[in-house]
């Protein structure tokens, strides 16, 4: 099994100031700790991953809040390509409705040209959930499913052949050829996050392999992946491995790991609640997001299971405990690669690095020996 690391760039301690500013209250104009300081220091995670034998380095796309501060993952990874030598580079995810799919294909193709034949760019894509992001980018969230479906088809064509002809409601592409001309079929590196039944239906229909980023809970994510396996088989596709993102915190003793995992995983969950406004009511009225609307209803009654969910279900602890839980999840999800998140919430970089280095020494060798079966119906 492959093992990756992920960079998030969260400014968790700025949430109170950010939300007060959003409500029109008088607050300082800038975060107490500079976004750019966090942004620059977390690049060290990429250096550690490259020198410690990780297979891949990933980042994510978000806009406008302290949740994560990478607004263009392919641009970010192009910089990372220049300071690393070994790791493959992946997006988890590029949100397709926020982009022209032709430009996404161009950016993937250009990064692949820089990497050469020794490294891969893995294009993980998704549909997006944040109201603030859709609004700030001037895109009607009710159009998200249609834009995503069409974008996925355009992107798959371009990555496979470097050419595209497509007519849809949102995109019309005729006789297009990518330059620089691709050297290989990049569609094998196209993966898609399946956070809802609606998205799972689209990617299973098109035979795109699933990327699992459990923004809500591992139980919901596993149910979606099992649904994917059923729909994919029905569409005539072969069983597929998944790729799986997991939060971790590794320490020499259980007590030290418990303290760190509980504090920072709860903080991360809180940041997700706030960024996605999961205690609100708006998602039920947005086309294609009705399932999230039902989750909002449940969370308004009691959000504590969500806040504690990452801590209670993700792999953390001593190296032995972390190996055990990560192995259980890898087998359940049929994954061929886990992308671990080492720094999140208000965690100091030194603490995240310590956990990551211990993971690389004591946990990663065991996980790399793991062989899992593809997820099947």
Question: Quick gist of this model?
Answer:
The protein has 377 residues and is an alpha/beta fold. Helices cover 48% and strands 16% of the residues. The chain has a single domain, classed as Luciferase-like domain (TIM Barrel, Alpha-Beta Barrel), CATH 3.20.20.
Describe the protein's architecture and organization:
The chain has 377 residues and is an alpha/beta fold. It has one domain (2-265, 314-368): Alpha-Beta Barrel (TIM Barrel). Helix content is 48%, strand content 16%. It contains 14 helices and twelve strands. The radius of gyration is 20 Å and the shape is globular. The model has no long low-confidence stretch (mean pLDDT 96).
């Amino acid at each position: 099994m492959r093992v990756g690391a992920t960079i998030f760039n969260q400014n968790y301690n700025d949430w109170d100031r950010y939300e007060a500013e959003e409500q029109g209250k008088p607050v300082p104009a800038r975060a107490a700790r500079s976004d750019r300081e966090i942004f620059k220091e977390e690049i060290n995670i990429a250096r550690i991953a490259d020198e410690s034998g990780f297979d891949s380095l990933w980042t994510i796309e978000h806009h406008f809040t302290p949740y994560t501060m990478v607004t263009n993952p392919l641009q970010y990874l192009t910089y990372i390509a220049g300071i690393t030598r070994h790791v493959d580079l992946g997006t988890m995810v590029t949100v397709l409705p926020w982009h022209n799919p032709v430009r996404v294909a161009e950016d993937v193709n250009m990064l692949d040209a820089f990497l050469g034949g020794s490294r891969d760019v893995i294009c993980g894509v998704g549909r997006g959930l944040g109201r603030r992001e859709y609004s700030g980018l001037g895109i009607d969230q009710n159009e998200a499913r249609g834009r995503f479906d069409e974008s996925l088809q355009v992107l798959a064509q371009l990555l496979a052949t470097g050419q595209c002809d497509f007519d849809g409601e949102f995109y019309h592409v005729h006789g297009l050829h990518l330059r620089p001309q691709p050297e290989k079929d990049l569609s094998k590196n196209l993966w898609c996050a399946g956070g809802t039944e609606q998205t799972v239906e689209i990617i299973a229909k098109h035979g795109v392999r699933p990327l699992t980023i459990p923004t809500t809970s591992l139980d919901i994510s596993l149910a979606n992946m099992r649904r994917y396996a059923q729909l994919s088989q029905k569409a005539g596709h072969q069983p597929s491995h998944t790729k799986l993102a997991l939060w971790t915190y590794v320490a020499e003793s259980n007590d030290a790991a418990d303290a760190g995992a509980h504090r920072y995983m709860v903080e991360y969950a809180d940041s997700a609640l706030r960024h996605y406004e999961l205690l609100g009511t708006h998602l039920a009225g947005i086309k294609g997001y009705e399932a999230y609307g039902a989750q909002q209803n449940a969370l308004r009654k009691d959000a504590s299971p969500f806040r504690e969910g990452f801590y209670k279900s993700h792999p953390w602890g001593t190296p032995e405990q972390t190996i055990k839980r990560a192995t259980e999840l890898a087998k359940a999800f049929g994954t061929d690669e886990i992308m671990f998140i080492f720094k999140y919430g208000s965690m100091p970089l030194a603490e995240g690095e310590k956990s990551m280095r211990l993971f690389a020494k004591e946990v990663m060798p065991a996980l790399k020996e793991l062989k899992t079966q593809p997820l099947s119906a």
